[in-house]
Amino acid sequence: MRSQKLLVELNRFIGRERDLAGLRRLASEARLITVTGPGGIGKSRLATRLLSQLLEDGIEGVVVPLASSTDPGLVVHVVASSLGIGGEPGQPIVETLAARLRQGRFVLLLDNCDRVSDDAALLAQALLEACVDLRILATCRHPLEVPGEVLWQVEGLPDVQAVALFMERARQIQHDFGGSQVSPVVVEICRRLDGMPLAIELAAAQTRFMQASEIRAHLDDRFTPLGGAGRTDPRHATLKTTLDWSHELLTEAEQTVFRRLSILPGAFDLAAAIAVCDGKVVRILARLVEKSMVVAAVDPHGSIRYHLLDTVRHYGRDRLDESAEREGIEHRFIHHYAAAFDGPATHMRSTDQKAWLARAERENDNLRGVLNLTRIRNPAGMIQLAAALSWFWFVRGHWTEGLEWTEAALAASPEPSSGRARLLSGAVSLARYLNRYADGFKYGEESLRLYEELRDDVGRAQTLFEVGWLAMPSQRFDEAEARFQDVLRIGREQQSEALAMRAFFGLGQVRWRLGNSREARRLLVQGESIARSLDDLWMRIALYDTLGHVLHDLRDFKQARRYFQEGHDAAQELGDPDQAAHTLINMAYVDLDRGDLAAANVSLEASLPASVGLGQRVDVSLCLDGFALLDAAKHDYQQALVLFAAADAIRHSVGAGWSAMHNARVKDAIARCERALSPARARQSWSEGQSMTIEEAVRSVLTKEMPVAVHLSHRERTIAALIGEGLTSAQIAARLRIAERTVDSHAEHIRNKLGLHSRAQIAAWAARELDVAPLH
Fold first, then answer.
1. Cα Rg of the chain (Å, integer)
2. Contact, 80 vs 86, CB < 8 A?
3. Cα distance between residue 572 and residue 568, in whole Å
4. 0.85 cut: is pTM over it?
5. Is the pLDDT of residue 9 over 60?
6. CATH among 3.40.50, 1.10.20, 3.90.1200, 1.25.40 for 577-702
7. Please, is 707 exposed, middle or buried when counting C-beta atoms within 10 Å of its C-beta (0-12, 13-18, 19+)?
8. pLDDT at position 367, please?
9. What kind and span of H or E run contains 79?
10. How do residues 521-568 score in pLDDT, each as one tens digit?
């Protein structure tokens, strides 16, 4: 399991040592700490700093940014997305979240709860009750009022730390600012600003244009009326006044860009800034960063992204409203993201699919903002964007959130249209993964009717494909066959290789499930050939997976494992962690059947933590079954029964089943274990496993002494295969167009990873593990 990589801000964290020390002590005892205080006081930065320290201690944690969430119903989905968790068939997303958070020690930072505090409080309470080792940090201007909540009130910085912050930011502008002495004027400025970090940063940014004495004079003029603030918290007035002053000191062009950027609810890149501001903004954006009105940060991929602090963004929204140009800016915001994600992503080439999915994940907060806006401003546009995002929601496992947006869009724009037909088609697959089959057929029927009215045979074929899949879980194979045959017919009429590929995939699935594995292989190989020619990575993953199962059934273990390995590599390339983890399980079961228990152990050990982290309980149960089969093979029948029982309990808890072949394998193994034990011992072992929590079952496996997982990269496997064919390093270098020393380096890595000592041993391994004929 891994922790989230936090955004790296481009300036140093200063002060708050006392707050951090106190919070760390509290974090070891309190289960819910809410860091409170006015906007601009530094709650988020403090809480994030605390979380980073806890991560260094080996505790898992993640930041859940809620500042951009205006719809309370999105809170649980934002938390799930931050954890990299998708949906799980037939299960409320809260249960999937809880199952993930029960693994080990975990800290959840719910940042900026103010506008969704009621839903954040309800979710926090539900998760704390379900996860005994979970700790939650929250930042909010007021308490969440959850039982057991401990409040930490953040005050202004003490003089010494406030001055240090001012001097640090000023010296980023002028490296010799203030010389070696701290000016009493700077001390007075910091006191005037109540030690509020945001206000201090805004004031320090003005040292590019003013002397410290001029800054103090401006503040004195502005802050004189604040004494009559009445019941208003003077710190709110301080910040408002500082923001007013900082805003007025911006040039007209800077003010325009600032208020327009406030429309963006999430972090954004330069392209988005240019789009919403309708012009060249690079230099102006840089100046806004210098003046602390915009924050620049490095994301986990090393890219620079920008955002406005919550308080600053809402100040900017007020200025945007006053300008009477909000409607036009909203239109640009909507147009930019709608254009960026328009079109059927499933038809893209592999590299485009990968980039499209990664971009959608990165821009998810902004996409949610666009969907919310279009629900009112442009319902037809909401239909179009939701239709485009259906594939993202499907592949990334955001099934519940995706279907909620889909239903909202369908309700907002009931008029017949091609976008509605396409959105309904995407809804079929989302409903299928959520086990909402009746809804899925309803969506499919309307989509087909609309496509018929539009005379769009290609669109109709796409929906027929989805409806065919929807018939499979209830074993309505005749209906599925008919739908896929229609897809094939339309594909041939339209000369569409993409449709023919999907038809072959669907028909191959039907043949396999009916037990005709040889015919299934023939159809699937045709589909795979087209997927390669079209460079459709997503379809290749699906075809590799089914071909692996078919060849496994045909006892062609080497080829089955090769397809599963290729599927694993493709899933990693696409960025589909669910499928990548699942293919490791498939490989493990092939290895079990060919008697390579060590390889099976390695794959299961790699898949189980990933499946736990993704919240995929069915895959966790399959891993536990795999470990149980390994224990049975080693004659540890008691432990095997415990794990079989634990896996069985997990599947029953989520109402999930698995294939008939897997059930038969497990049933046979359980019977062998029971015969090897006394009836009393067998019952005791089964009872022990049935009463285990998921966490206990996983812990019992992962704490065993296991070999280190060995996975060669794609390039390493290629070189190993060529060594297996008898090629020299020079010949391999010429074929792959790389340096000979690079080949030798890869060969050394292969030997080290596999524990081998010579090229001959690599060749023997390649003959056994890869599709390479042994040397004679």
1. 30
2. yes
3. 6
4. no
5. no
6. 1.25.40
7. exposed
8. 95
9. helix 75-82
10. 999 999 999 999 998 888 999 999 999 999 999 999 999 999 999 999
| Six-digit token string for 98 | 């809880």
CATH 3.40.50.960 fits 340-566, yes or no: no
Distance CA 45, CA 485 (A): 58
Rounded to 5°, the CA angle 764-629-659 comes to 100
- Of 364, 344, 367, nearest to 539 by C-alpha is 344
User: Which of 441-455, 476-490, 644-658, 681-695 bottoms out in mean pLDDT, i.e. has the lowest?
Assistant: 644-658
Q: What is the CATH superfamily name and number for domain 8-153?
A: P-loop containing nucleotide triphosphate hydrolases (3.40.50.300)
Give the type of residue at 328: G
CATH C-level class of 714-769: mainly alpha
Question: Are the C-beta atoms of residues 152 and 124 closer than 8 Å to each other?
Answer: no
Name the least confident of 401-405, 497-501, 524-528, 569-573: 569-573
**Which amino acid, residue 150?**
V
Q: Show the 3-state SS of 428-462.
A: HHHHHHCCCHHHHHHHHHHHHHHHHHHCCHHHHHH
Nearest to 288 by CA among 311, 262, 310: 262
pLDDT of residue 84: 78
Question: Looking at domain 252-338, which of 3.40.1280.10, 2.40.37.10, 1.10.10.10, 3.40.30.10 is its CATH number?
Answer: 1.10.10.10
Selection from 730, 735, 700 nearest residue 715 by Cα: 735
Question: How many Å apart are CA 421 and CA 409, to the nearest integer?
Answer: 12
Q: Which residue has the tokens 């392209």?
A: 271
First to last CA, the chain: 45
Report helix, strand or coil for 9.
strand
Residues 326-384: pLDDT tens digits? Answer: 999 999 999 999 998 886 666 667 678 888 888 998 999 999 999 999 998 899 999 99
Q: How far is CA 670 from CA 608, 666, 681, in A?
A: 21, 6, 13
Query: Could you tell me the CA-to-CA distances from 690 to 641, 647, 687, 694 in Å, in that order?
Result: 10, 8, 5, 10
- Rounding to the nearest 10 degrees, give the CA dihedral for residues 339, 343, 349, 355: 40
- Residues with Cβ within 8 Å of 134's Cβ and at least 6 positions away in sequence, in order, are 31, 101, 102, 106, 107, 108, 127, 128
Q: Cβ atoms within 10 A of the Cβ of 609, count?
A: 18
The values of phi and psi at residue 152, to 5°, are: -125, 110
Report the candidate in 400, 328, 336, 332 with the shortest Cα–Cα distance to residue 363.
336
